[in-house]
Design a protein that fits this description.
It is built from 7 helices and 4 strands, in the order αβαβααβαβαα. It is α/β, with parallel strands linked by helices.
Length: 163
């Protein structure tokens, strides 16, 4: 279950942001513990604040990783959205290598328009899939993109990549 972080109010002071972080840490710790009793994995996702959600509280991938490490709960993982990581940090190969032990779910979309993960964008998805395979990722990969047309037409990339 993705635990959303919410928005930073306009004009929030540094002190207010510190209080927000304390509340966020308390809330995700509680949620991770509570969800574990139901067998539901708790996920946090850094969402880019440059394009998708301005003022999103958790927008930097490294901060998401720090939070997961700080909370140190076996039922709290990162939702690693390749689209957001590329926009906020780039360096996808190294980030996948560093973050994967803390990842509970991978999502993808093409940059810059959050389209299908084909070749009409910044990310070379056949290469990204090979990195995930090489590192032993065996979880699901979610598709969170804006299709250009019909769903069936938007899945041709999947067949072209032999998946």
């Amino acid at each position: 279950m993705h635990i959303m972080a919410g928005l930073i109010p306009e004009g929030a002071s540094a002190t207010e942001k510190e209080k927000m972080m304390t509340t966020y840490l308390d809330n995700i710790t509680y949620a991770a513990d509570r969800l574990s009793r139901e067998g539901i994995l708790a996920l946090i996702e850094p969402v880019n604040n440059r394009i998708s959600v301005p003022r999103y509280f958790l927008s930097v991938p490294s901060e998401g990783l720090e939070i997961v490490k700080k909370v140190n709960h076996p039922n709290l993982k990162l939702q690693f959205d390749i689209f957001h990581v590329q926009i906020m940090d780039g360096n996808l190969t190294k980030n996948i290598q560093n973050y994967l032990p803390y990842v509970g779910h991978v999502q993808l979309a093409q940059v810059p328009d959050r389209g299908e993960p084909d070749n009409s964008g910044e990310i070379n998805f056949p290469y990204i899939f090979s990195v995930l395979d090489k590192l032993g990722y065996d979880g699901y990969i979610g598709l969170e993109y804006k299709p250009r047309g019909k769903t069936e037409d938007g899945l041709t990339w999947f067949k072209e990549l032999n998946y």
